[in-house]
């Protein structure tokens, strides 16, 4: 009776140890995935910050242009500036890693 209980307890300990190891492996995997998501979210946020900064700079330039008295050419100026700015937006989009699409659902930390 006592030996049987001892064997059962030893078996339970072995199973528990295997479960702990399995959970450690899964935890490491999830941690790597989380790190990838964080890195992608951070890069995406930096790209968006760059776009906002560029927009603010362009708005200041356009405001100065309008204040200079050349309002009648404002649309042509805006179109010209937007063409160049569109390229920088595309470059920013291309620089954002796309290895983990779930990053767009999570704010940067």
Provide a descriptive summary of the structure in words:
The protein is mostly helical and about 110 residues long. The chain has one domain. It has two helices and no strands. Helix 1 runs antiparallel to helix 2. The chain is rod-shaped. The two termini are about 55 Å apart. Keywords: Coiled coil.
Sum this structure up briefly.
Keywords: Coiled coil. The protein is built from two helices and no strands.
**What is the domain tally?**
1
Class from secondary-structure proportions: mainly alpha
Query: What's the end-to-end separation, in Å?
Result: 57 Å
Care to count the β-strands? 0
Global mean pLDDT: 80
Q: What does the largest sheet look like?
A: none
* Helix fraction bin: over 70%
Q: Rg, please?
A: 28 Å
Order of helices and strands: HH
Helix segment count?
2
Strand content: under 5%
What spatial form do the alpha-carbon principal axes imply?
A: rod-shaped
What low-confidence regions span 5 or more consecutive residues with pLDDT below 50? none
Question: Strands, helices and their partners?
Answer:
Layout lengths: L1 H66 L6 H22 L14
Keywords: Coiled coil
Give structural attributes.
109 residues, mainly alpha, 2 helices, coiled coil
